[in-house]
Structures are given as structure tokens and as C-alpha cells.
């Protein structure tokens, strides 16, 4: 695996892979890699001849009171994991390489980025869209893979790709990969490590309550009271607060007050022991 920390080295590594006629997949990450990321890498291999992974803790997507400084950074361990997966290229730029002095551009995707996590994390999705567009331009992949766990992020990136005509010539496909879960159903996340053992045990109530909610909705229960029951269940189980529990159209993320003909998604963000967990599941 070649590791590039400057754009110059990255571009010559990509050119070498392209020179061999390789179809290139990109897996963007912020490091602290877990099985969910490695699943993305393995899926990438199914679609491409070579896999590039980026590791960059993007300051632009963290709010002033968020966990940028505390966010886990484990480059040596991450690099070893990627070597083990046979990844061809690791792109690990510094903040200065990504955002040189004078950097002044912001990519803002309206609509789909505004509710849900966008409501409580102002600027977060601008930061995501800006860095992902830069990563696409830097690596020039044929396709890119993202976890479905960040469903709103995936919707924002797909919207940006459509709006900015990114599907040609560089990015043929933005592939969403299903969430990887622990045995008790908790979605894997780099932030799970912040949970105390007690909070970690209580956190399993989130996917469990979501499954019960989906079963109730499918059985015909009214949306608003069913979501209220979900929130109450989480608070009883030890969660400190629920940022949102929403039924939404799976692609526009417009909230729904009834199931209809188009795919719907249940999306939840809730806080436990100082950690904010998000999850989402298909309803139909
Ligand atoms: O999902 C993430 O890890 C990040 O939001 C991403 C897509 C790598 C952009 O920084």
C-alpha cells in the first residue's frame, strides 16, 4: 500500500494505477477504522480493480462545541488494517494540505441537509460536502462508497453529485453500504468507544426500539404517537435526550406523517452519557 500525504504524491500514485488501466474505488473515512469501514473496503473491491481509502478528520464538519480535538486518531493502527485488506492507496492529507491558507470555498447543499442532523449541527453538511467534493477531485475515482449509517450524509452527497454533474467523467457511482451492527444491534461507530460500559449496554435499546417502531408502523399504527412511544422508550432505557425520531422519505428526507408508496426511512439521533448516537432503518 502506498501512503500519500501530499497532493503531488497522491496524483502520481493515482496516475500509476490508471496507467495500469485500473478502475479505482474511493472509500472516504475519518479514520479510527472499525469493521464498518472494512466492510466498505471489501465492497469497494467488488466494484473496482484498486481501492483508495482517505483518512482525514475534517475540521470543517465539526461545530465549535463538538469533539474535533477528542476525535480518535490512530493512523498507525488504521494503516495496518488497510494493509491487511490489500488496499492499494492511502490518502492521508494534513489539514494544511486539504485547506491551504486562503481557502475560501464552501459547498452547501440545501434542502436535504437542513433537517435532522443538519438542524442541530449547523454547517456540518457544508463541511462534509466541501471535503467530499475535494476528495473526488483529488482522487478522481470511478466510484465511491459510503456507509448507510450516515443516511443523511449519503443523501447530501448523492444530491451534490447529481446537482454538480459529478457522475461523469469521474464518479460513476455513489454506493451506499448497509450498516454493520454489533451482536445486540448497535450500529458500529467510531464514537461508540466514548460510551461507558453502562451506557454501551443501554445503547442497545436504540436499534431495538427502532425495530419495534417499524413493526408498529407496518402494522398500521399512526406515525406521531408511535414516534412518541419510541422517544419515551429511549428515555426510559437511559438515554438523556432524543434530538429527533423521524419518519422520512428515503431520498428527499422530507418528513412523513403516514406511510405511502415511496420508500420510507426511520431516522433517530439520541444522546446517552454525553455521546450522540444516530441510526436509521428502512421502513418499507
Ligand atoms: O463519514 C465520514 O467519515 C465523513 O463524514 C466523511 C464522508 C469521510 C467526510 O469527512
What does this molecule look like?
With 284 residues, this protein is an alpha/beta fold. It folds into two domains: 176 residues, Rossmann fold (3-Layer(aba) Sandwich); 90 residues, Pantoate--beta-alanine Ligase, Chain: A,domain 2 (2-Layer Sandwich), CATH 3.30.1300.10. The chain has ten helices and nine strands. Strand 5, helix 7 and strand 6 form a beta-alpha-beta unit. The chain is globular and about 55 Å long. It starts with a strand and ends with a strand.
Helix % is: 25-40%
Q: What distance separates the N and C termini?
A: 41 Å
What is the CATH architecture assignment of the largest domain? 3-Layer(aba) Sandwich
**Secondary-structure element string:** EHEHEHEHHHEHEHHHEEE
Short description:
With 284 residues, the protein is α/β, with parallel strands linked by helices. The protein has helices at 7-19, 35-47, 75-84, 95-98, 116-120, 124-139, 151-163, 197-203, 205-218, 223-236, and strands spanning 2-4, 24-29, 50-55, 89-91, 143-147, 173-177, 241-249, 264-272, 275-282.
Secondary-structure map with pairings?
Blueprint: E1 2-4, H1 7-19, E2 24-29, H2 35-47, E3 50-55, H3 75-84, E4 89-91, H4 95-98, H5 116-120, H6 124-139, E5 143-147, H7 151-163, E6 173-177, H8 197-203, H9 205-218, H10 223-236, E7 241-249, E8 264-272, E9 275-282
Parallel strand pairs: 1-4, 2-3, 2-5, 3-4, 5-6
Antiparallel strand pairs: 7-8, 8-9
The structure holds pantoate (PAF).
Amino acid at each position: 500500500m502506498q501512503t500519500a500525504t501530499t497532493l503531488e504524491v497522491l496524483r502520481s500514485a493515482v496516475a500509476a494505477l490508471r496507467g495500469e488501466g485500473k478502475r479505482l474505488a474511493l472509500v472516504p473515512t475519518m479514520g479510527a477504522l472499525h469493521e464498518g469501514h472494512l466492510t466498505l473496503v471489501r465492497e469497494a473491491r467488488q466494484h473496482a480493480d484498486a481501492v483508495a481509502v482517505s483518512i482525514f478528520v475534517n475540521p470543517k464538519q465539526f461545530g465549535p462545541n463538538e469533539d474535533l480535538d477528542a476525535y480518535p486518531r490512530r493512523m498507525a493502527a488504521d494503516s495496518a488494517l488497510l494493509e491487511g485488506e490489500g488496499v492499494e492507496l492511502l490518502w492521508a492529507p494534513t489539514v494544511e494540505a486539504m485547506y491551504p491558507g486562503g481557502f475560501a470555498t464552501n459547498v452547501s447543499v440545501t434542502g436535504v441537509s437542513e433537517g435532522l442532523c443538519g438542524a442541530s449541527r449547523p454547517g456540518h453538511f457544508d463541511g462534509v460536502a466541501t471535503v467530499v467534493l475535494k476528495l473526488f477531485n483529488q482522487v478522481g475515482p470511478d466510484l465511491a462508497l459510503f456507509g448507510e449509517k450516515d443516511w443523511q450524509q449519503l443523501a447530501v452527497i448523492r444530491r451534490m453529485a447529481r446537482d454538480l454533474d459529478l457522475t461523469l467523467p469521474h464518479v460513476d457511482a455513489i454506493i451506499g453500504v448497509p450498516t454493520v451492527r454489533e451482536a445486540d444491534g448497535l450500529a458500529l461507530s467510531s464514537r461508540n468507544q466514548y460510551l461507558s460500559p453502562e451506557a454501551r449496554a443501554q445503547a442497545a435499546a436504540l436499534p431495538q426500539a427502532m425495530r419495534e417502531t417499524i413493526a408498529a408502523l407496518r402494522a398500521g399504527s399512526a406515525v406521531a404517537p408511535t414516534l412518541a412511544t419510541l422517544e419515551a422508550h429511549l428515555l426510559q432505557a437511559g438515554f438523556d435526550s432524543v434530538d429527533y425520531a423521524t419518519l422520512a422519505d428515503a431520498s428527499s428526507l422530507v418528513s412523513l406523517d403516514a406511510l405511502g408508496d415511496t420508500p420510507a426511512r426511520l431516522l433517530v439521533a439520541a444522546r446517552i452519557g454525553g455521546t450522540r448516537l444516530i441510526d436509521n432503518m428502512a421502513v418499507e
